[in-house]
Design brief:
Four copies of one chain form a homotetramer. Chain A is mainly alpha-helical and 213 residues long. The first copy, chain A, contains ten helices and no strands. Chain B binds a DNA duplex (21 and 21 nucleotides) through residues 8-11, 13-14, 17, 38-40, 48-52, 54-55, 58-60.
Chain lengths: 213, 213, 213, 213
DNA sequence: CATGAATGAGACTTCATTCAT
DNA sequence: TATGAATGAAGTCTCATTCAT
């Protein structure tokens, strides 16, 4: 309670450990992939020793799963709120939804998780179900619900909502993947502005989706 | 002396080996990733021993590069031809182009290469440039050229061509990534028909792209 | 807190390890040569596991270089001191110098290093320069200086000093080589007393070198 | 019998094979050592395939032993003849003996054999006895006999003959070792003229050996 | 006899994990 | 709790040797 009590610093460190380890792990897994990241590097980046890592996570595999869980589980709820609150056109809502997610996720290392999960999911069977339940299905539900709102309000054509929802999320995910793979390499040949590309893609889709006057 | 005498078994094997090894490597790299695939597994899957693999490829890394080269570099040329030959509307051309690629690539394990490259490119700087030169830039050029054709013929709106090209390829790549990651896991919750989804995405985009009458 | 409290076992081992490993490596390299000595044997002989060796030396090659450095670089200095201190005849000085070196080196496994270096130097260009700088050139300088002393004092004939220095060291090196090759094999036919042989050779050379009365 | 018969070329090749293989092996073993020389390199250097090598020698180890046997067994006899024929002073005889051997051996790759044997003899127990019987003991006998001749004729002092013989051979062997180890490395610091050094050493020894007038 | 594709034991090295301190 | 020295299973790659042609 006393913020300047002598042991508060250590106490706080101790409580912050798991979070610090997860952050270090996130950065390294995204940068180098699961296999190429050494446990010791993670520990070192979190400012602790190799042994300490194993006090919090029983294996590198469990650490990886914890990274995935921690970073993605909180995200969906925010989107839900945004959709519930919105009052204007559904196109505007979708633009705002994508912009918000991109800001909250696309610009953070968490966006790189998708890359790592994509690469490793076949080696971690449990992770697949978790990721589907926790990330893919809720995100799909959120976007589908929004598309349905547009259809119900007569703004959008009556197309298969799941497929359309999928189409609307894809550009964002695609951009996130790129940013943490080719985008991180000093390669010459293809430089596109991510935000502009994302906007173009979304505008195209929305225009294709809208009922023509 | 007899020109149709059967080649010796040894001889025939020697010529077939690289192809057999590349196929085994492709399957395993796509399934498990680069790091998680052991050299010996590849050799075994190709029906040879560990040592034999190294008679044909000097390292696992070079084997991987050979897989990329063999499977992707030939595809671009076919697309170029298709575009050169086409005479009808540009929307039809794009639909055909995507359909052809999806058939030639999306339905084969080769589509999984992108997943592996995505995952490994930051540990493999040399590959990044190679992949950009050999795959990304040519594909971008092909689609950009096609979009420009549509603009020139008054079919499409005058939007930034590279970004539009990117948008048109993205659904296909996205689908390929999905197929070889989550799509390959026995997970319940999200089953979409790939071809239908791809068609929906492309139609949305083309409709958004077209000049309205 | 107690300055004479026993250091922890772990701690003490950590400090002793490099020395233990170097000793094991010296013995095995001399006995079997560089290539025929397995890393694991060295580790085992030092009472640790394979992995531990690599905590202290990054490769077998570096271990070998460390063996050379540790065992030979300190010897030259002692000789220098001896020469600086000596006051009697130069013949006596040379006899003492050889006797001291033989005692310090010839009777220890370290004398076998020269054999291993001889055998490996052409596969190990870096070592060649190191060994020349660290061992051969200083030893040559020391003996040359001593011979020159004898010439300056009118004890020795004025012959090319480097060649004479070489001649004076050769018997010792030769003996060291023999001891760790043929001398270590249970072979019948040629048994000579090393010390006596060395003395005879040196006496012959000195007598040939001295100015005749 | 017909020197231009069509098959003589192949015939000669076939008969020459073992010799060609031994020569290639000698060169490579001396250059790189036993372990670092690959069987295939030897075969290639001899102009045959890997398999052919094994038609003539059942293993790399046996090839190595054959190299040693072939190159050294013939040498002693020549020296014996020289000693038997000589009529002048024993010092002159020794100078000639060393000069002849150096010319016949020191300037050829065969001198490098001693280096390889030195390095490997402890890993090839049979070789030790062979080498002692075939090379060391005969050479010692030859030199001892010659020294004894000098003593008998009142030219040399009555010192232990074996030790003196040893002293007289050492410079030559030493020089041979150097030539094929450090001498073959582009190292700066110690360049001596081999022949001059050898002469200096021998002259010193002979002068030390001679009865003073 | 000759070839060279194929083998697989074995070497070096790495690194996730354990555990004495 | 925290440390980091130690372990040893496992992975990549090499190369002596074999054997079908």
């Amino acid at each position: 309670m006393n913020p300047i009590s002598p042991q508060s610093q250590r106490q706080r460190r101790k409580e912050a450990r798991p979070q610090e380890l997860l952050e270090a792990a996130l950065t390294l897994f995204v940068e180098k992939g699961f296999a190429a990241t050494r446990s010791e590097e993670v520990a070192h980046a979190a400012g602790v020793s190799k042994g300490t890592l194993y006090l919090y996570y029983p294996s590198k595999e469990e650490l990886f799963k914890a990274v995935v869980r921690t970073n993605l589980s909180a995200l969906i709820a925010e989107g839900e709120e945004l959709v519930d609150r919105h009052e204007g056109s559904t196109s505007d809502l979708l633009v705002e939804l994508v912009a918000t997610w991109w800001q909250r996720l696309g610009n953070t290392p968490a966006a790189g998780i998708h890359k790592v999960v994509l690469a490793e999911v076949r080696n971690f069977p449990e992770l697949a179900q978790f990721y589907a339940d926790e990330v893919i299905v809720p995100a799909d539900r959120l976007f589908s619900r929004t598309v349905q709102r547009g259809v119900d309000r007569g703004e959008f054509r009556a197309l298969p909502v799941h497929e359309v929802a999928h189409a609307l999320m894809a550009p964002m995910i695609f951009q996130a993947l790129h940013r943490h793979s080719f985008g991180a390499c000093p390669v010459h040949g293809l430089e596109l502005d991510p935000e502009a590309t994302l906007r173009t893609q979304l505008n195209l889709l929305l225009r294709g989706l809208e009922v023509r006057p």
